[in-house]
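Minutes, project check-in
Item: structure for the 93-residue chain
Input as provided by the requester:
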Amino acid sequence: MIKNINQESKELLLKILLNLKTEEQAREFLNDLFSSAEVSDLARRAMAAKLLYSEKTYQQIYHLLGMGANTITKVHFKTRGNKVLKEIINELR
């Protein structure tokens, strides 16, 4: 295994994301590289973050998304205090 491949892989993914110019390119990227289940998981985590920023309870998020408390907690702690994500979500409302 190549040393630092994980970091290089993350950097490559970031560069690809930053170079997507249209919604169509983003859709193609997601559909070509990820399974529908992986895209669904990413989308549900983004929705959980949005709901957490909207001050929904874990119980409400569970009922809306069918997402377990452990996953909601992970999203909560990974996104808590993330000003950029919060700003983006607020702009999309």
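Outcome recorded: The chain has a mean pLDDT of 93.
No further action items on this chain.
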